[in-house]
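Suppose a classmate hands you a notebook page containing two proteins, each written out with its sequence and a corresponding row of structure tokens. How would you begin to make sense of it? This section walks through that situation. The first entry is reproduced here exactly as it would appear on such a page.
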Amino acid sequence: MQHVKVPQDRIGVVIGDGGETMREIESRAEVRLDIDSESGSVAIDSVGDPVTGLAAPDIVRAIGRGFKPEVALSLLDNDMRMFDLIDIGEATRNKNDMKRQKGRLIGENGRTRELMEELSGAHVVIYGSTLGIIGQPEEVETVRRAVGMILDGAPHGAVYSFLERKHNELTRGAQLSGPSDEQL
């Protein structure tokens, strides 16, 4: 049995309309969830395939950190999909610095966060003092590096260039070995 703590304002999302999300997690991850909505504690007990059940704590944690349930459940879609969490608080000195860094990560009208998603292929959510990432290992690593650059004070332009370079590498690797555009 594993326990995951979920912020109070996200417990309802883990449960879902009439318990719908909770039941979907239970059936797809082959686990039983015992949710204490007072404390925000979720006990996870594997009742089926133990390997499938391994994704359940990350699914619950991801929903707790602001992901939509359907995105969190995508962790079950393939063995390589992963959930990663970056604590923005570790890179900030105080509340004002935290606010400034979150602002830099989100970008004007959410554009920086959006570009991280578009160019890496991963899902990115900023909630509280954390930035969550769901994707394939190379997508998660790309976002992790971009976030590190932003938190270290790199100009947005440099981060966008890095993301575009990584995007081209990731998509070029995914293409079948036909003639490239340069060869045509």
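The notebook's second entry, a different protein, reads as follows.
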Amino acid sequence: MQDMAAQINPDQLVGILRDTVVALVRRDGPDLSARQLGVFLTVYLTDGPHTVRGLAAELNVSKPAITRALDRLGELDLARRKVDPMDRRSVLVQRTLKGSAFLRDLRQIMADAEVATRELAVAEPANVETAPGAAGGSGTRRAG
């Protein structure tokens, strides 16, 4: 898989991100901001336990910003907060079943976007080669 990733250029990565975000917006499900998605992915893709303070430090944002993101994630049941039984002053952020399902869906959406990007990249060289000949020097290109 790492070899595949090395073959994708930055424009293709941005295209995968765009296709993923558009698919998330279009689907019947939670619509997360970039910050909420960043917090969600940090909780689900990095080892815990996660605290508000730790998330704020890792993402380099304020604790109130993390709290607002967690409020939304909690409303959507994508994450939950629980008082740390070892230190009652600290709040732990936990994963949920619904959040795990959302991550699984997100992975599939991104995989589909990546396949579409690769298929387009394979098709583009043929289009680039035929485009100049198709124009035939007839001046069919339009300016701005």
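A careful reader of the second entry would note: The longest strand covers residues 79-83.
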